[in-house]
Automatic annotation (TrEMBL):
InterPro entries associated with the record: Glutathione-S-Trfase_C-like, Glutathione-S-Trfase_C_sf, Glutathione_S-Trfase_N, GST_C, GST_superfamily, Thioredoxin-like_sf
Top-rank taxon, per record: Bacteria
Source organism: Duganella vulcania
Protein name according to UniProt: Glutathione S-transferase
Keyword Transferase part of the UniProt annotation: yes
Family matches, as Pfam families: GST_C_3
GO biological process assignments: glutathione metabolic process
Length: 240
């Protein structure tokens, strides 16, 4: 079997790499999750090293496709979407899809700040007081603001099927699925309270969950469980 893609992301974490994995799994494209195999970490670090590659990435995820080495989640998904039918064909549609993905990247950054509001170089335990304050703002103000936006995107989409863009599934739908799953894990009480206000978004999440390739992946050992080393972390004190 030919493996056209190598994905470089930290072993043991879903993180930003999971958005790429979901697109590859849905497209049924073989790929190698490099850092999860023995001695894969040196290869991951090499793609971040300007002394070894011409266009080093600042951080994973990175996707190798032949001679191409592509960094940044939204950039990778734009590439996969165009190649594997997970993005609109028209330029305006591709740009809109990428814009939505970049907005998802914004909330993902804010999720991380709920448990690391001061410094990524410090442990969560060293900034718990500040994390509680940041998480309170995120729960009460920022989650509703983002979900309001994405609910509007889905409900205003003129295409059939209840998707975010057009009448066919795109990588943004997969990423919204992952966003909802992650928020449910990290903030279960908050999401239980908020979800009734977002029927279109939750229906989209449920539609993605039922897709055969996604259901098979989520139920497999290839899907790394959410954990307290990733972006979405369950600290009960942050979800009061």
């Amino acid at each position: 079997m030919t493996i056209p893609y190598q994905l470089y992301y930290w072993d043991g974490l879903q993180g930003r790499g999971e958005f790429v994995r979901l697109a590859l799994e849905e497209a049924a494209v073989p790929y190698e999750d490099v850092a999860r195999r023995k001695k894969g970490m040196p290869e991951l670090l090499a793609c971040l090293d300007g002394g070894q590659v011409d266009h080093p990435s600042f951080a994973p995820p990175v996707l190798r496709a032949g001679e191409l080495l592509i960094g940044q989640t939204a950039n990778i998904l734009m590439f996969i979407g165009a190649r594997h039918g997970l993005a609109p064909r028209a330029e305006a549609g591709r740009l809109w899809t990428n814009q939505l993905q970049l907005t998802i990247a914004d909330i993902i950054g804010e999720v991380h700040e709920t448990h690391h509001p001061i410094s990524v170089g410090k442990y969560y335990e060293d900034q718990k007081k500040e994390a509680k304050a940041r998480a309170k703002c995120f729960r009460e103000e920022r989650i509703p603001k983002f979900l309001d936006y994405f609910e509007g995107v889905v409900t205003r989409n003129p295409g059939r099927g209840g998707y975010a863009v057009g009448s066919r599934l795109t990588y943004v739908d997969l990423s919204l699925f992952q966003l909802i799953e992650g928020l449910r894990y990290a903030f279960p009480k908050t999401m239980a309270r908020l979800e009734p206000s977002y029927p279109a978004l939750i229906a989209l999440r449920d539609k993605v969950a039922l897709r055969p390739n996604i259901a098979a992946y989520v139920g497999s050992k290839r899907r790394i469980p959410f954990n307290e080393d990733g972006i979405f972390r369950r600290y009960p004190e942050l979800d009061k």
